[in-house]
Structure formats: structure tokens, C-alpha cells
Amino acid sequence: MEKQKFREFLLTKGLKQTKEREEIINELMNTKGHFDPDELFLRLKNKGSKVSRASVYRTIPILIESGFIEQVEKTDRHAHYEKVSEKQHHDHMICTKCGKVIEFYSPTLEMLQEELCQKEGFKGIKHTLEILGHCKKCSQ
């Protein structure tokens, strides 16, 4: 989602385009992969931003609702997010020991999900698949 679309979303919701939200969006535009709110806050702080941790946490639900980011995982420790992109759908394997996230795509799984939906007369719109376990390094 482009910054302008996010600004338009804020207007439709009657929310202000604040300097803090602009800084958060700018940082996310340059973010690749997964992030958590605390990492985002520290990156902003290290760049001299005055954005508070509370502003980051308050902005996350707005970014999700707008379709700019989506929640990837939620563990006992915290949630991770990623920007919504035009790239191919993918799922995640998450190591419960070290927190490593492995993205993967399986045409077989995608086809099976579609077959299951058709069998049940269900129109799937979106799905997420998370496999929790231990990565190669933590399994040894």
C-alpha cells in the first residue's frame, strides 16, 4: 500500500495525519521482512525520531486495518508484522526457541485448501498458516 492510500484511509476514518504516523510509515516503507513494534521503535529512536513507543503501538492497529501491514505471528513474547505486498502469498514456520521465521510457499497446500473450500461450498478470502516448532539449529 502506498503512503497516499494510507493518508486517504486516515481521512475516511476521521484520523489525523500526524508527524509521528508519517515517520512510522516512512520507516516501514524501508522495512523488509518481519518486524515487531519494539524493533520499529528502536530503529526510529536510533535515527533521532521523537516517536514514542506508545505511538508505535497505537499506530499498529490502524496500519493493520488499513491493509498496510498484517500480523504474521503472535507468540508468548510478542507479535511480529510484515508489510502487505503484491508478492506471492506465503506461509510461515516459526521456531518457538529462537523466534526464527521461515517463509515458504507450497502449491500443493494451496491446491488442497482450495479443494477443501470447494468441497464445503466455502468461499475462502484469506488464510494464514503458521507451523510452530524448532528450526534446524535449535533441534540439534
Describe the SSE topology.
Blueprint: H1 3-13, H2 19-29, H3 37-46, H4 53-66, E1 69-74, E2 79-83, E3 91-95, E4 101-104, H5 107-120, E5 130-133, H6 136-139
Parallel strand pairs: 3-5
Antiparallel strand pairs: 1-2, 3-4
What does this 3D model show about the protein?
By secondary structure, the chain is an alpha+beta fold. The protein folds into two domains: 3-83, Winged helix-like DNA-binding domain superfamily/Winged helix DNA-binding domain (Arc Repressor Mutant, subunit A); 91-139, Dna Ligase, domain 1, CATH 3.30.1490. Helix content is 46%, strand content 17%. It has six helices and five strands. It has helices spanning 3-13, 19-29, 37-46, 53-66, 107-120, 136-139; strands at 69-74, 79-83, 91-95, 101-104, 130-133. The strands form two sheets. Strands 4-3-5 form a three-stranded mixed sheet, with no helix packed on it. Helix 3 crosses helix 4 (53-66). The longest helix is centred in the middle third of the chain and has 14 residues, at 53-66. The mean pLDDT is 85.
